[in-house]
User: Fold D-2-hydroxyacid dehydrogenase from Ruficoccus amylovorans.
Amino acid sequence: MSTPNIVILDAQTFHFPDKTPWAPIEKLGHVTIHDRTESAPAVITERCRDAQIVLTNKVPFDRETLAGLPGLKLISMLATGYNVIDIEAATEHGITVCNAPSYGTSCVAQHTVALMLELCNRVGEHAESVRRGDWVRSPDIVYWLQAPRELAGLTIGLIGLGEIGRGVAERLRPFGCEFIAYTPSRRNGPDWPEFSWASSVEEVFERADIVSLHCPQTADNAGFVNATRLSRMKRGSFIVNTARGTLINEHDLAAALRNGPLAGAALDVVAHEPMLPDNPLRTLDNAFITPHLAWASEPSRLRLIEINAANIAAFLSGKPQNVVNG
Assistant:
């Protein structure tokens, strides 16, 4: 392939005040950068009409869009997940799809633990209370909106045990937690006395004090965290999600937070992003939601660009890497 046309569709989250982050990509072809792209097939097709290579994070490529781009040869994901791409259609059209594994493992694992600590200690809520003057007005030297809850002795239920799930467990182990995990393949399980495999997803929900999701979105697991599974959880338990918002039925979760058995939920993702104003979790006092930023440390974003540059270089050399459809 001669010098390719490369189109980046959603670059807004990769701005840095003192860096030119796209330099590794710009060495590989003629680059056109769009901060944001509307998720309409006509808009995407127009922007990618002359592209041989496209980089996307959340801009979707369905069958209709892919059919309108006969010159497209490579889609490289600015993400690990690739559920925004119709993989079957891409394969039919001879389009290679690559992702970026492992770029955000440390960052996402750290954020997951931060969410668990917020559920247990409510640091942000107490800091805001002090800021409002509640401690100034307090007759006592100590007060709490919720007594701190120790992680020591709690059972952490991990659904999915890839690099992030295992990274979460490794960071929590010094707190004295127990761990139970479910994944169909039972790969990469740590050889720890405090770790065990669950025989089913249901067993995780029944035994864990905190359920943490670390599985990809597939056609089979959309909304699998539903009323039936939530009803199996211990009274006073928590759920954490830094994976995909569509894994959870949000109306069922809201009901479990209002009526029990859950004491709280901490989420970095929701089913529709940006969040819709009528999201049933948005105004609940015991739902702690961050705006899909678990992956977004500066080192993590720079690693993501470097992996995409390597994906493009490998493809151009005839030896594609991180291919998810071949």
